[in-house]
Structure formats: structure tokens, C-alpha cells
Amino acid sequence: MGLSGLDIFKKLPKTNCKECNFPTCLAFAMKLAAGQASLDDCPYVTDEVRAELAEASAPPIRGVTVGVGDEAFKVGEELVLFRHEKTFFNPAVLSVVVSDDMDDAKVDELLKQVNECEHERVGVILKVGAVTVKSASGDAGKFKALIEKVKDATKKPMILMSEDVDVMKAGVEAAGDSRPLLYAATEANADAMGALAKEKDLPLAAKAADLDKLAELSDKLTGMGLKDLILDPAPRQAGQTFKDLVALRRAALNEKFVAFGYPTITFPCEETDDELYETALAGMYTCKYGGIVNLSHAEAWRMYPLLVLGLNIYTDPQRPMAVDSKFYEIGTPDENSPVLVTTNFSLTYFIVSGEIEGSKIPAWLGVVDVDGQSVLTAWAAGKFVPEVIAKFINTSGIADKVKHRKLVIPGYVAQISGELEEELPDWEIVIGTREAADIPSFLRQLSS
């Protein structure tokens, strides 16, 4: 159980210096106890006290890293039940299951889907996060061969799936230094599987029939010195899985129940044979509160909406997504290409740039820093206004790149055109379209 705010306050320097961005040491202590502040924010806490307060300052749900290199992922480290309270941090990871009882063609197809599943959305690359390698045959040789096949085909982190410790040992040997997640320790094999995970310093999933047994198993494994655990309540019934995931999150955050202070893993692919229902379950577990979500396939029709859902859920609701403020070259613009301007809200930029690309007319797209707000919102907030736009144009260097002096502004802010011409007397202000879908025809007409 973590320390209370008052317990933490007693150990702080009590200077009320405000350098932690809180008005008093007591306020800072209360936020620290709630997991909403970092001990590093206090510049005067001693190393001795820092060590004492490590438990209170650590996230109530431990962060666990699987894999190595650029493809490694982390799950956990969540602080809240609802994203509007603060934010969610480490997105749910989608993993595709391949099994050693599948024929080679099926495995090749699934691995091809995994590698080809990559989409760009508002500047973020969305992709499958892992491959779950399942030993359905119980044959260590087949399991090892499949792991080697997966390693050759993709750099994705692996989840090794077997409850037979001897089979798992063969799998760990084949996985080498790729830091796979071992799935799973159970009541029956906890001692041997825990010892293997500890010896190899690998993350371990714990699986139990109900939450009471899962708590006992978690305590046993942590008692063995294991820290990187992932929990699976394993009812394999959609309604009960959802209830268990919520109960685990509430217990960890609200009750500070240490045994449940770990990320989770789910298997919608084992809860139904209906592909549409499986995808719907995966969406539900992405929202609440699956850390790793296992699927039977990685076709675009199911993965793209799930990946976008994860992006939306795990985007900080208090910080709009923004792109860098500068001029972007759409296509290969030259000195005669049109010049357009918009805001740095990511969605606005990617919609507008996409329509410009679709027009096949190269253009210069200027993005004004308005703290990541859309055109109308930024205008209403006094951020996308003539003096700001003019300053951007004058300091961007765009005048040296084009011969003409025509600047296209969004149709939704046509009312600023007169003032903008006063701020930019050398430029002709052209009122563009209100809707992005009309940009291609507008550009063709403008260039004719």
C-alpha cells in the first residue's frame, strides 16, 4: 500500500518554495500520493528521502517493456480510470496469434499481414505491435521452429505462449535476446515458470481462473523477486472479461492494491469464432482496459479502425495534436506554385495537405502556430488573426521562394482578408474554400 499524502508531507523539506509548480509542500505531497506528480519535481528532497518515497512516487500500475530496439513497446504506467481526468499513457498493443499447428501458408499469410499493417494518421504511424507465438502442439521442436520463422520474418516483439515449462525453455532459447513476454504462469507451474522468467530477466504473464486466485498468483510471483508482470484473469467470456479488467484497474488505482498493480493481456480471439464480434471485443478492451489485445488476423478492415480507436483513446485530451509551424512542400512546388495557409492542428493539416496532393497541383502550405487549434476555434480565440498570420509570412522566407504575391486563406475566415491585406500590403489575399473537399477544383481554377 502506498504512503498517504500526510506521510509524504512529513518527509518533504517544507519550504513551500513553489519550484515544483504547486503552492505548498502539502499540495505537492497530496498530488504525489495520488500519482499525479513526480518526486523529481522537488529540487530539495534528499537522496535518502527519495529512496523512502519511491513507492509513493511510482505509478500504481507498473510499466512493463516487451521487446528490444525501435519495435519494443511498453504497457502500464496508467494513473487514472478515465482519460479526461488526466490522460492515458501507453496505448493498448494489438498482437496477432500464430500457432505451431497452423500450416506454413497460414503462418506466412498472417506474418505478411502483420508487416503490411502500417498506417499514417495525423503524423503518427499506426501498426501491429507484437506477434503471439502459440505452442498448440506441445512439441518443443515445432515451437522453436515457429519462433525462428517469426524472428526471420519480422522485428515485432514476441509473446511466447505455452504453459509447459520445458516447451517454454526451448522457446526462450530460440527467441534469443529479443526480450519476449512469457505467457503464462499458472497456479500449477508458477514455481518453474517464475524461476525461468527470473533467470532470463523476462516479463511474465500470470493467468488464473478468477481474481482471487490471480491476486494469490501475483503475490507469489512478486515474492519470488519478479517485478515485470502482466495479468490475465482468463475467464474467456466477454462480459466477465470486461468486468475483470475494470475491477483490476479500480483495485490498482483506487485501492492501491499492489497485487493488481500491473498491465493486462486479453484474448478476444479465444472468446468467439465470429470475426466481427472479435473485432468489437478488441475495441472494447482497447478502451477498458486491455494492455495487450490478441487477435486472430491483421486484415486492414479490422486493424485500421482499432488502431485509430487506440490513437484517439490514448491521445492527451488536454493537449491538441499539432504539427510544426512552417511551410510544407506539397508535391514539388516551384516559384509559380500557389501559397496557402492554415493552422497547425494535426487533423486540419493532414486533411488539407491530402486534398492538395489529390489535386496533383504542387503547392506551398503554410502552417501557423495556434497551439494546435482548428481554423475557426483559433480565429475565435484570437490566435489565427491577421497580425499573427502576417508575422508568420514575413518570417517564413516564403517571399524568396515564389515570384507571385498571392496568399490563399481558408474560406471560413474570409472576414479577415481586408485586415490581412493591410498587414501584408505586398500580397493579394485570395479567399479559399470553406471545405477541404473543394480544394482540388479550387486549385485547378486558380492555376488556370
Automatic annotation (TrEMBL):
Residues 1-59 form the 4Fe-4S domain. [4Fe-4S] cluster binds at C17, C20, C25, C42. Keywords: 4Fe-4S, Cobalt, Iron, Iron-sulfur, Metal-binding. It holds the Pfam family CdhD. InterPro entries: 4Fe-4S_dom (IPR007202), Ac-CoA_synth_d_su_TIM-brl (IPR016041), ACDS_complex_subunit (IPR051069), AcylCoA_decarb/synth_gsu (IPR016218), Dihydropteroate_synth-like_sf (IPR011005). One of its GO terms (biological process) is acetyl-CoA catabolic process. 5-methoxybenzimidazolylcob(I)amide binds at T342, T348, G372, Q373, S374, V375, A436. It comes from the Bacteria. GO terms for molecular function: 4 iron, 4 sulfur cluster binding; iron ion binding; methyltransferase activity. This is Acetyl-CoA decarbonylase/synthase complex subunit gamma.
